[in-house]
């Protein structure tokens, strides 16, 4: 699969952009574990043009992450164009436009998935951003606003005509948020439309190597993006890439290796922010990590792990988990 001149190989697995998740440390770890392309957190065009520090920091990427995309969102043409130019100066490989974020604070203001209620403006923004930068521009969106308005088959052609180089489709409507099961049938229809010449990337509910391979075979997409399944489990990319290449599960990744990756995230999160906020930031990964799922009599320890406020306290709890539960 190619995005412009960027060759991601056959059946690539991409790390989805996720707010408060795909920070530089997590992106790099996922890349090292096999992710073929990674995306930044959502970058607000309005905040970027106002030079808000917390937003401009999201533009920081490293050479080791490449290929990397910066994803921007907004509801007006001029701020989106200016934001795209600023993002381009940061040196990513791709500019991605977010027309899919369903959260209320974004969509209710007309940005993200909110754009699915104003297709003319969505297309105007897309054309303007494509014309404003030299980098490949891609779009990530959903099937439509709600079940009565699944417009993606028509919308995909319209977005392609704007000049985008790839389209990622999450198999839910905005009204579904992240509930229910992702519907890939329309993603498959878009891919099988002979008029669609750009790569089509599917997204939604890809949680195992087996499902990844099955959906590649069933829907014929060019790429697949993995989101929530990677939270607290960056090693999932190693598992998925191995399965695609060998048709079987990778020999067991040890608990020691998995814990080492989580510890690295903790330390790098603290180094990047500060001790207290760095630990708060990493709690989402610890809470979601399958490393701790199914451990008997773990509830009290789990609560303590997620309530720890200092590195010393958290490190002590992780040491206890290694000794008492994981036998590392």
Helix content: 40-55%
What proportion of the residues form beta strands (DSSP E)?
A: 5-15%
The largest sheet, given as strand count, sense and whether it forms a barrel, is: 8 strands, parallel
How do the strands line up in the largest sheet? 3-10-9-8-7-6-5-4
CATH topology of the largest domain: TIM Barrel
Sum up the overall morphology in one term.
globular
Distance between the termini: 40 Å
Q: What is the averaged pLDDT score?
A: 96
CATH homologous superfamily designation of the largest domain: Aldolase class I
Poorly predicted sequence stretches spanning 5 or more consecutive residues: none
Secondary structure tally, helices: 14
Count of β-strands: 10
- What series of H and E elements makes up the topology? EEEHEHHEHEHHEHEHEHEHHHHH
Structural class by helix and strand composition: alpha/beta
CATH class designation of the largest domain: Alpha Beta
- Into how many domains do the coordinates divide? 2
Based on the coordinates given, report the CATH architecture of the largest domain: Alpha-Beta Barrel
Rounded to an integer in angstroms, the radius of gyration calculated over CA atoms is 20 Å
Briefly, what is this?
With 328 residues, the chain is an alpha/beta fold. Helix content is 45%, strand content 13%.
Q: How is this structure best described in words?
A:
This protein is α/β, with parallel strands linked by helices and 328 residues long. It folds into two domains: 244 residues, Alpha-Beta Barrel (TIM Barrel); 72 residues. The protein is 45% helix and 13% strand. The chain contains 14 helices and ten strands. Strands 3-10-9-8-7-6-5-4 form an eight-stranded parallel β-sheet. It has a two-stranded antiparallel ribbon with strand order 1-2. Helix 11 packs antiparallel against helix 14. The radius of gyration is 20 Å and the shape is globular. The relative contact order is 0.11. The model has no long low-confidence stretch (mean pLDDT 96).
């Amino acid at each position: 699969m190619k995005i412009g001149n960027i060759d991601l190989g056959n059946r690539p697995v991409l790390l989805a952009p996720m707010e408060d998740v795909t920070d530089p440390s997590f992106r790099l770890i996922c890349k090292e574990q096999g992710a073929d392309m990674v995306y930044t957190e959502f970058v607000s065009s309005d905040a970027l043009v106002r030079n808000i520090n917390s937003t401009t920091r999201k533009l920081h990427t490293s050479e080791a992450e490449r290929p990397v995309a910066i994803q921007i969102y907004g509801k007006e043409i001029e701020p989106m164009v200016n934001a795209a130019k600023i993002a381009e100066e940061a040196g990513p490989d791709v500019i991605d436009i977010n027309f899919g974020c369903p959260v209320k604070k974004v969509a209710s203001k007309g940005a993200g998935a909110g754009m699915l209620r104003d297709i003319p403006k969505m297309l105007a923004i897309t054309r303007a951003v494509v014309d404003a930068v030299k980098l490949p521009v891609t779009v990530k969106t959903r099937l439509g606003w709600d079940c009565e308005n699944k417009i993606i088959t028509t919308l995909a052609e319209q977005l392609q005509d704007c000049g985008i180089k790839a389209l990622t489709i999450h198999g839910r409507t905005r009204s579904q948020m992240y509930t229910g099961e992702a519907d890939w049938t329309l993603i498959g229809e878009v891919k099988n439309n002979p008029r669609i010449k750009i790569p089509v990337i599917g997204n939604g509910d890809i949680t195992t190597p087996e499902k990844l391979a099955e959906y590649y075979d069933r829907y014929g997409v060019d790429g697949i993006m993995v989101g929530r399944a990677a939270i607290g489990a960056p090693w999932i990319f190693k598992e998925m890439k191995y399965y695609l290449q060998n048709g079987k599960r990778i020999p067991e990744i040890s608990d020691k290796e998995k814990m080492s990756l989580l510890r690295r995230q903790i330390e790098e999160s603290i180094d990047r922010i500060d001790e207290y906020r760095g630990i708060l930031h990493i709690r989402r990964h610890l809470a979601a990590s399958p490393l701790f799922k199914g451990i008997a009599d773990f509830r009290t320890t789990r609560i303590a792990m997620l309530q720890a406020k200092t590195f010393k306290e958290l490190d002590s709890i992780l040491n206890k988990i290694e000794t008492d539960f994981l036998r590392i």
